[in-house]
Amino acid sequence: MATTINSDKSETIVGTGTKIFTSTRTTYSADANGKIDPKSVKHELMYYDAPLSPGIVAATSTGTSNDWTFTNKPLSSTPWLGADAQKSLKEGALKNTTQQQIKTAATKGKVSEEQQKALSTKQVNTATTNNIDDIQSSTSKDIANEQKQTRNNFSLTLKYPENLQAEFQDVIKFNMVKYSPKNFASSGGSSFGFSSRIQAGNKGRDIIGTVTLPIPGGISDGNLVDWGSQSMNALEIEAAKIALAGINGGGKEGADAANDGLTALQNNLGDAKKGLSVYFAQAATGVTGLLARTQGAVTNPNMELLFNGPQLRPFSFTFKLSPRSKKEAESVRSIIRFFKQGMSPIRTESNLFLKAPHTFQIQYLHKKKEHKFINKIKECALLSFAVNYTPESNYATFTDGAMVSYEIQMQFTELEPIFNDDYGNAANQPDTEIGY
Fold it and tell me: How far is it, in rounded angstroms, from Cα 211 to Cα 154?
């Protein structure tokens, strides 16, 4: 059953000062639980020549959109609402008045605030918002749909040499995983930034391929942190001190800091006077280094080495693979393909986006357990992969065409920097591993 609610008349100034009187009449249908069907909603904007004159339907709108259809006078092409009023109804004072009228009428009609959303025309850009949602949904779907030839599953048993036995010898293991972007940290928590990246082996993120090789010679690591020298002269120090005091403590603390600076200036009046005179002389003449030339001194720069941030660690590996059988040659071919294809960008089905390549977890293992005497490595991206097909400087193959020897060079970089807490707290217990 349809329900109709009417608002009181309101006076609105539109255009160049034109005063008009309007009210709204809204019709809708609701189910037994009071839930309003947005498709059933119809708004009518009533126009009055004067406060006591009978109302005339000047425009209509359906649903929660603000797209009004204007009614024309009989035998005339001029709508009841003129151009100024129509513009005001789209984006102006009349739009705000109309929205308020609908809300007030709904409140008087005992429509709940939740259900008023189905009546409100505040969602002027509802169609646009829906389009944005559709675009976002379509974008997510498009990114999820990859080209049909995309490979997301590789062998989990690739190894070289064929008789490699991880149970009895030290090996390096490369696990390939699908790249996992980070999400924003949940609001309301105690931390900012991003949440932790989902690790391989957890639900929703599986290892999609594995290569096991002997640990090569020349392995190393280098932890990197960015520090840099910075300077701050006396004037900059005092200005910063005053600014911080004012921001943190208000005007009084800022004034106190300024007074402290003046006191320090008065106590060192001789040096300050000399420094200021040289400063203004340099500014007037464009000459630099005047104090050093005339006094053999410079303004104390208060130079200090300060922490700028962490850096990402690179890792390089070189392997020489010389197959001794047809099966081993096939394994070497698959290993090379494993890294080449895994590091390649992924195209979406529409070819509109490129997704990040697969990434790698690298582990040094001793008897199938994590090596305690070699560094650990965080998840890495494979930045470069080079193959030398003639490492002996001679072209030589077996009868089936397989090269007698290959040399591969890989350059990885960790996705995240190393932090102190990554090592854990072992202050009161012995260090059982090198860690990162």
Answer: 10
